[in-house]
Amino acid sequence: MRLLLVPAALVGGGGLLSVVLLLVTLASGALEVRIAGNAAATDAAHLLTVLDGQHRLTVDRLEALGANVTVLDERMEAYLAQRGRVGQVPAALALVDAIDHESAFLLGDRTVSVDKMDLNHQIVTLRAARHTYDQALESWQHAAETWRGGAAVRLGLAYAPDENWLAPPTP
């Protein structure tokens, strides 16, 4: 007889149980989105650290190897102007993309030199940091688009990535 009282109490308190389940669902969705957002922020910070340590040297090496650095200089100026501001991540992504694009031509030929090997190492490091960030951003976006995460975002319990986390379109 006691076994029947427990389910009867749950059915009678169905409204309360529904509210508890809803709160747990929203909390788990918010937690998932926030964890993914924190991972993206960490990977963005790593990308900025890598870029801060290499941007000038990389551009100088590209120039010494004959690259057209006009676009690189423009993107670097934009990046430096955005340091510590909301638009820093998109400016960093634009600079990494420009470095990657310009280096593709120089590193694509078959001549080998120490400068090219050093440059290639820097480019691989930048690409890896960019790739890690892109994956984290995609995970964050996906978490925010699930039904639990989307509900949490719409209620303000978590935030989805916005234009301040994304790269601007390349011209």
Secondary-structure blueprint:
Layout: H1 2-12, H2 14-64, H3 70-82, H4 88-107, H5 114-145, H6 147-154
Kindly state the percentage of residues in helix: over 70%
Largest beta-sheet characterization: none
What fraction strand?
Answer: under 5%
Q: Characterize the overall form.
A: elongated
Give the mean pLDDT.
84
Total count of helical runs of at least 4 residues: 6
Low-confidence stretches: 1-9
Alpha-beta content class: mainly alpha
Q: Please give the number of β-strands.
A: 0
Radius of gyration: 24 Å
The CA-CA distance between the termini, in Å, is: 74 Å
Topology order in helix (H) and strand (E) letters: HHHHHH
What would your notes on this structure say?
There is one protein chain. With 171 residues, this protein is mainly alpha-helical. The protein is built from 6 helices and no strands. Helix 4 packs across helix 5. The longest helix is centred in the N-terminal third of the chain and has 51 residues. The termini are far apart.
Outline of this structure?
The chain is an all-alpha fold and 171 residues long. It contains 6 helices and no strands.
Features:
single chain, mainly alpha, 6 helices, disordered N terminus
